[in-house]
Amino acid sequence: MNAEYQETLISASASRLNDSTEASRITGVAPCYSAKTWEDEFLSVLEAEHNPIPSGITGLDTLFDGGLVPQLYVIGARPGMGKTALAVQMMVAIAKRGIDVYFFSFEITRYDIARRILSLLSHPYTKEEQLSFSDLRSSSKLTGKKHDAFTCVLSEYKIIDEHLYLLDGAEKKPS
């Protein structure tokens, strides 16, 4: 089949499929997308890829041409390699921009993720004010400067919380 004939055939098919009546007659089913709908969706995807969301990690943003595009990202590595730390850092940076972020885990509870976020948010504070993951496991450890830091960090967490969706399967389900 020569290229000119192929192009004519594709063009004719596309114009016939734009008419939903003709498409229904040919295929027996109404089309899911018109060419215009598909074009709009395609252009919006290109726009999203052209305006990446910074991850908060300079090296990663460079690697991904300026940041992340809205889609599902799966992070995999061996235990203890920093997958959760990476995900938490990116989640916080993106949520601070007012963009919704979803975190799914079958191993870590949403409370442990919240503790990691609070710990990360405390890093600008002095060493004695920084909140470690273990500090956030017991209220008895939150005294003095750590309690003051916790109050400040919690108010910062509440600002980004409306954009964080932490979903887990690690908690016991009622039987």
Can you lay out the helices and strands and say which pair or pack?
Elements: H1 3-18, H2 20-27, H3 35-50, H4 58-63, H5 83-96, E1 101-105, H6 110-121, H7 145-161, E2 164-168
Parallel strand pairs: 1-2
Task: Describe what you observe in this structure.
The chain has helices spanning 3-18, 20-27, 35-50, 58-63, 83-96, 110-121, 145-161; strands at residues 101-105, 164-168. The protein is mainly α and 175 residues long. The chain is elongated, with a radius of gyration of 25 Å. The N and C termini lie far apart (64 Å).
Features:
175 residues, two-stranded parallel ribbon, 7 helices, mainly alpha, 51% helix
How would a textbook summarize the main sheet? 2 strands, parallel
Terminus-to-terminus distance? 64 Å
Summarize model confidence as the mean pLDDT: 79
Helix fraction by DSSP (H/I, runs of at least 4): 40-55%
CA-atom Rg in angstroms: 25 Å
Write a brief structural summary.
The protein is built from 7 helices and 2 strands. The mean pLDDT is 79. Helix 5 (83-96) crosses helix 6 and helix 6 packs across helix 7 (145-161).
